[in-house]
Structures are given as structure tokens and as C-alpha cells.
Amino acid sequence: MGHLLIFGLGYTASVIADRLRALGWRVDATGRAGNIAFADRAGVLAALDGASHVLSSVPPANEKEGGGDPVLDSYGMALAGKWLGYLSSTGVYGDTKGAWVDESTPTGTGRRSARAVCDARWLDAGAHIFRLPGIYGPGRSAFDRIADGRAHRIDLPGQVFSRVHVEDIASGVIAAMGGGLPPQAWNLADDLPCSQNTVIEHACRLLGVAPPPLLALDQAGLSPMARGFYLENRRVANGKAKRLLGWRPLYPTFREGLAAIAQAERFAP
Q1: What is the pTM of this model?
Q2: Digit-coded pLDDT (tens) for 220-269
Q3: Which domains does the chain have, with CATH numbers?
Q4: In the predicted model, what is the mean pLDDT of residues 90-105?
């Protein structure tokens, strides 16, 4: 089995780590939940020396600081000869007014300019790039937003988003790790782009609660980051990962994903 070093053991990377450990892999990681401090240069270089695979989920640095990539800027010289993976965002495609995007769609035109730069740098470094839409799963779903009072229904006719269950990200990354394919970009998204309103309304039905009121964008009191989310509109195509990796989402739509979360968290679907 292999030895993976993860830079940034966050929500998604933790699921990937758990799945690989169950398959017999050794996994080291930086981050608060990891076993190596990112700033421990000797420790990181020792782990890199033994690692066969490297995966980064570290976001770009603050754009005010130049928007660089912390991993490539600090440890890029030690990555040669490794299988490389980078968890990116479909935000690199920008707003397409609801049109479909695939891996051939130009990047760098949207609000995620620093992410697009890092995405391109990792691709140039020989990494597999996993472009991810809205990520959800246990502990991070519409149910949690409803419970916390953070769920919104925004009156934006024709607005659609893509999303992906965290387990489907893990299966896609692991498929690429063992697929023997050259480094390239992969969209990992479910099969049903739809409005966020549709997801919130379905989750409310499962919980047996009334949906939040329908508000204009300016009435919702959204953070600048959340507001930016609603200013982009696109559908993310996943056909390449299906064709070349043999990847199939376990949760092809939000309905299957929310049903599984409801069962795991003991809600009543």
C-alpha cells in the first residue's frame, strides 16, 4: 500500500484519509487534526521523503499577501517524483449564466482569481486537480444550516448550483490515485445541478419544518463571501471522471445524499 501526505487535514481531506487508512495506507497530515505542523520543516520534509502520494487541500494565501500557494511556495522543491493531487474549486470557472462547464472551460474569470492561479500552478507542477462545487456531508449539510438558522431561500429565478457529497469526493480522488492516468483536471460533482432553494425545501420536508421565507438577495443579510456565491450561476459536468476514472457518485443527487445523512444523524426521512 502507499504512503500519503496530506497538506491541510480539513473536512474533506479527513474523509479521504479515513478511507485510505481502511485500505491499509499510511497517512500523515498537517493541520490542526494532523500529526505534523506545517511550519515543522524537518518533520514535513521527512514525511515527504517517505511519501508516495501528496494531496493538498490548503487554500490560497490571502490575496493581500500575494495570493500564493502555501504548499508550493514552501515545499514545492520536494514534490518531484510523487503522485500529486490538489483539491480546487469549480469557482475557477466563474459565472456562466447557468451554462454547463467541463474541464476544458477556461478558468480565471471569476471571483476565485487566487484559486485559479493556484489551480494552474498545481497543474503545471504535475498534479491531478479536483475541481469541487458545494461540498456537503454529515455535519455539513442543509440540515445543519436549518438547525442553526443559517438556511436561506433567495429569490433568484434560474439560479442553479452544483454540489457533491464528501464521500463522492473521496471515491473520485482514490480512483485517480490508482488509475494510472496522467495528471489532469477532474470535475467531481453530482448529476443534478439545481437551486439552493430546492435543497433547503427538501431538507425542511424531511425534518417536518416550514422552510425559511423567500427573500431578495439584498434582504438576506449574507456575508460578502456568501453573496458572491449567489452571484455566480453554472452547471458542472462530471462526464470526464465517469468515462476515464470509472467514477460513479454514490449520491447522484442531493436527495440520496440528504436521505443518507438523515439516517446517519437519526432524522426521519
Answers
A1: 0.95
A2: 788 887 788 888 999 999 999 999 999 999 999 999 999 999 998 876 44
A3: 3-264 (3.40.50.720)
A4: 96
